[in-house]
Specification:
The protein has helices spanning 2-29, 38-44, 93-97, 135-139, 163-166, 170-176, 178-199; strands at residues 72-78, 84-86, 103-109, 116-126, 145-147, 160-161, 167-169. By secondary structure, it is α+β, with helices and mostly antiparallel strands. It folds into two domains: 1-63, no CATH class; 72-199, Alpha-Beta Plaits, CATH 3.30.70. The strands form two sheets. Strands 1, 2, 5 and 7 form a four-stranded mixed sheet that branches. A three-stranded antiparallel sheet has the order 3-4-6. The chain is elongated, with a radius of gyration of 25 Å. It starts with a helix and ends with a helix.
């Protein structure tokens, strides 16, 4: 009986010793190429990587997948003259579907008529309350609000972002979510083409 327990302990120790040795062998293979090297990090975090993998943050960062989501941001389009046009029409759908109610919008009004116009006067998101669920981006009919990849937002004060702090270009969105942006652009182009055909 004691022989059986002794073999089990030795087997367990041999597995640990193997992992320990493989860790340093993999380090020698990637010597000098680990830090700030996306290829090396991708290899070490994949199934081909051997041994124990520890991310040397902040020098090393594991690449985030396209569908990774963090605090929402507002998308604006840039015109030929460099003018920025915010896609948001202050419809309020994002604020209504937000489970923790961290979004609040103040609509702009026409001074002559007093009627609301499709442009937010104020737009705020409380990142301390936001649960990063992505419902605001999913329900927005104008593709005006999207989920960001930037997760390094630690601060010593309350994280309430206004329109200026939330606004990012459509080019930035295309860079962090290329597959989604391409699909949405194609859908928008098809919709615009169908409207043109109807008018003609």
């Amino acid at each position: 009986m004691s022989d059986m327990y002794g073999k089990g302990i030795l087997k367990g120790l041999s597995v640990s010793l193997k992992r320990f040795a493989e860790t340093y062998l993999d380090d020698l293979v990637w010597l000098g190429r680990r830090y700030n090297n996306d290829k090396g990090i991708a290899h070490r975090s994949s199934k081909e990587g051997r041994g124990i993998f520890t991310v040397q943050y902040p020098e090393e960062k594991i690449p985030v997948p396209e569908e990774f989501r963090f605090v929402p941001f507002l998308v604006y389009d840039e015109g030929a003259n460099g003018e920025k046009t915010l896609r948001c029409t202050s419809c309020g759908i994002c604020a209504k579907v937000c489970p923790p109610q961290c979004i609040w919008i103040v609509r702009s009004t026409d001074p002559a008529t007093g009627r609301p116009i499709p442009d937010p006067a104020q737009f705020y998101i409380d990142a301390d309350i936001c649960m990063n669920c992505g419902l605001c981006a999913e329900f927005c009919p104008f593709d005006a609000i999207k989920m960001d990849h930037d997760y390094e937002l630690a601060s010593f004060k309350r994280s309430v972002y206004d329109e200026a702090g939330l606004s990012k270009s459509a080019g930035y969105y295309s860079a962090i979510r290329p597959v989604n942006a391409k699909r949405e652009d194609a859908a928008r182009a098809a919709k615009a083409a169908s409207r043109t055909v109807r008018v003609e």
